[in-house]
Amino acid sequence: MDEDALYDAADRERIVAEPPKRVAAPERTPFERDRARVVHAAASRRLAAKTQVVGPQSDDFVRNRLTHSLEVAQVARDLSRALGQSPGASQPDIAETAALAHDLGHPPFGHNGEGVLAELATDCGGFEGNAQTLRILTRLEAKTFDRDGRSVGLNLTRATLDACTKYPWRRGEAPAGPSTGKFGVYEDDLPVFTWLRSPGTGSPENGRRRCVEAQIMDLADDVAYSVHDVEDGIVAGRLDLTTIDRPAVWETVRGWYLPEATDAELDAVFDGLRAMPSWPVARYDGSRRGVASLKNLTSDVIGRFCGAVQEATGTGPFVRYRADLVVPEQTRLEIAVLKGIAAYYVMESADRRRLQQRQRELLAELVAALADRAPDVLDRPFADDWAVAADDAARRRVVIDQVASLTDVTAVSWHHRLVGR
């Protein structure tokens, strides 16, 4: 069967209908156009100056949100292809676009900044990076307007927007589990969320189920996050895989990811990883040989994770809600252990905690200054939003949108200009 035939007219539908564009031969598919729109979005460029784990200004080698997104996109595309898609099929385009877009909603200073804005936005619907991504794609990143003159953002197809929806529920509606505090849509973005999840378009009977393309994006993010954050920590001199403090790290793994895991279980998982031929036997020294060895390790671990998922899931093609990704329990545990190693040695370090505290203070002061002096100090699009905001909560949302759009560097410079210290 032609895999593209599995995506029907509803999957390809846009909020505002657009005629086909013949700008190249052969003509691009709707999903290829979606990918191009995300690549060219200003919000994508801003990711280059937003924190991934180590601040982007600290080292030329470590990852920022943009390079992380590119790596997630590569993993998502390769995994999608491996699951039975032909080279010209559309699902790899959709999964790749979702991966490219998955972090667009992150504010300055990564998850630390996200927590601050969530606290400051309590009275206007909260803040969540994934909900902000949907808002950017369907409202803030202006490309297309509807008949009433409202921005519909990049006007992506229904299938692509659904693939970008990592948490398909509103605030407070999350199922029990590790993502309890996560959500994917603000109340004032419900109309477009309802449209992209509407019945009769392949949406699931279980309203909180994710399409398989979103599952691929989510796994690719976990794989890249777990492997590359460890790599960045090694290069930054913060951790050494040959001398892991297991008891301390396992406490972090339980606190962040696997609350029920025992030391014996985590020891067995880590020993399985250490048995890989490319696992380091000496401390990273920054030499060309050291760099090559580290790259070989990251490649092998990514292959290990994706190969296990491919084998467990089987051969497709898989699209929308016709299948689910199968992640073996061993793979889930191995990913969590690597995440925990990075969390303990990088995110929980004393110097990072001090930096994060100052970042939180800076963002809180910046939000207060903008709220006090808006709309004069807002960028033009947000000043326009402020002018038509119906109440204080809507105006608060405009300020949160403005701050979330800033990079790490611009947040600091705006704070210096508006707060003065």
Give a short summary of the structure.
The chain has helices at residues 9-12, 30-39, 42-46, 65-82, 91-101, 110-120, 129-140, 158-163, 190-196, 212-235, 246-256, 263-274, 288-313, 329-347, 350-373, 380-388, 392-405, 408-418. With 421 residues, it is an all-alpha fold. The chain has a domain at 212-349.
Overview of this structure, please?
With 421 residues, the chain is mainly α. The protein has a domain at 212-349. It is built from 18 helices and no strands. It has helices at 9-12, 30-39, 42-46, 65-82, 91-101, 110-120, 129-140, 158-163, 190-196, 212-235, 246-256, 263-274, 288-313, 329-347, 350-373, 380-388, 392-405, 408-418. Helix 4 (65-82) runs antiparallel to helix 5 (91-101), helix 10 packs across helix 14 and helix 15 crosses helix 18. The longest helix is centred in the C-terminal third of the chain and has 26 residues, at 288-313. The radius of gyration is 22 Å and the shape is globular. The model is unreliable at 55-61 (pLDDT under 50).
